[in-house]
Design brief:
The protein is built from 13 helices and 16 strands. By secondary structure, it is α+β, with helices and mostly antiparallel strands.
């Protein structure tokens, strides 16, 4: 009887972590509030091979849509089994930490999604996995905490270089995942949407900054990240003030082209009847957004926008003006010169957003990137320094 309850309890490891509401720069240096991920869990990573070239060719929206689809495919499986998994959006892919009860279903679904992506977008989605125990055997760590980033939204915070190590293995030339999608596996991308136009900065802001920061020394991650976040707060203000998404700048873009692209990603083909039905339903959305419930949804959309990821590095999209950015760059350049960090930055005039909308009340998450492939461009700058 005891043995039968262990897998279920283990699968709820992340779900049952306490939610911390203190300022993030305070949480980062409280080591005792971070928990070690169970060794029998698995790290899963997806990314688009050649994403930099795709972005340079103007396909940044395709790249974001495909990355979002990989998240939706995993979260739908987890939701169906009443399990919460930590995940991290990266612009051209995503990282997940999943319990053993999910790993086979997740990898089968991602294999299906990989085939669908290649057939419909001529882009190769790489999907790989490595057991957390193998990461620990190589001397790397994954410590995780759950952080309340807003009243309605929480995110995982990871310290240690375990996810970075997993990424190097899975993206390495020697890595081979031999997973095959079984006939029993069905790809479920219910809720994936990509219907917002490019989003200009809020009315009192000038630009969108996409930023990636890694600490040179893993042991100094918390201290270094704390220093950066404190400076960001000093220059830009609270997270709400540097939030790149604002309700008054949101604009739906429900063209047949955009809806058709979304449908190809979800269903592998465009079904004319479904396309027309979805397009007609979009007009109802305009009416819905004028109601109190619709306005509440738009406000919660802003709060539930995924603009900060800490997965052993800082990944964030913020808004402000050129003077604020110059002050931040001054600190980052000094810290880089001292050997504390390496960073990549991309500045653009808008952000782009793709969405996972399970329901319009509280079941929605919105993934934000700088336009022109902000995360991919920032990563390109960072890799050049490495």
């Amino acid at each position: 009887m005891m043995q039968a309850t262990i897998p279920e309890a283990d699968a709820q490891f992340y779900t049952t972590l306490p939610l911390h509401k203190m300022p993030l720069h305070v949480l980062l240096v409280k080591q005792k509030l971070f928990s070690k991920v169970p060794a029998n869990w698995h790290v899963v990573i997806t990314d688009i091979t050649g994403s930099t070239n795709a972005v340079l060719d103007g396909r940044h929206e395709d790249v974001n849509l495909i990355a979002t689809g990989s998240i939706v495919s995993v979260l739908n499986i987890a939701f169906g089994m009443d399990i919460t998994v930590p995940f991290f959006f990266g612009g051209d892919g995503a990282t997940f930490i999943v319990p053993p009860v999910l790993i086979d279903k997740v990898m089968h679904a991602l294999t299906l999604y990989k085939d669908n992506t290649l057939a419909n977008f001529n882009l190769t989605l790489r999907a790989g996995t490595i057991p957390v125990g193998d990461i620990y055997k190589e001397g790397h760590e994954i410590h995780i905490a759950k952080y309340s980033s807003s009243a309605a939204f929480s995110i995982p915070i990871v310290l240690g270089n375990g996810l970075n190590y997993a990424e190097k293995i899975i993206k390495g030339e020697d890595y081979l995942f031999s997973g095959i999608a079984t006939q029993e596996t069905e790809l479920d991308l219910t809720g994936m949407q990509c219907r917002w136009d490019k989003i200009p900065p809020p009315a009192d802001k000038e630009e969108i900054v996409t930023l990636l920061i890694i600490a040179r020394e893993v042991s100094q991650q918390a201290t270094v990240f704390k220093k950066v976040l404190e400076k960001m707060e000093d220059l830009y203000g609270t997270p709400e003030k540097r939030q790149p998404i604002s309700v008054d700048r949101l604009k739906l873009k429900t063209t047949f082209s955009k809806l058709g692209k979304e449908m190809r990603a979800k269903m592998g083909r465009v079904q004319l009847f479904e396309l027309i039905k979805t397009w007609l339903l979009s007009f109802y959305v305009y009416v819905y957004f004028s109601t109190k419930k619709g306005k509440d949804y738009l406000q919660s959309l802003v709060e539930m926008s995924d603009t900060l990821v800490i997965d052993g590095r800082i990944n964030t999209v913020i808004t402000g003006n050129a003077k604020q950015r110059a002050g931040l760059q001054k600190l980052l350049d000094a810290m880089e010169a001292e050997g504390d960090i390496i960073y990549g930055m991309h500045v653009s005039g808008a952000s782009i957003m793709s969405c996972y909308v399970r329901n319009l009340d509280d079941g929605h998450i919105h993934f934000v990137d700088g336009s022109e492939g902000g995360y991919t461009q920032a990563a390109r700058m960072l890799k050049a320094k490495l």
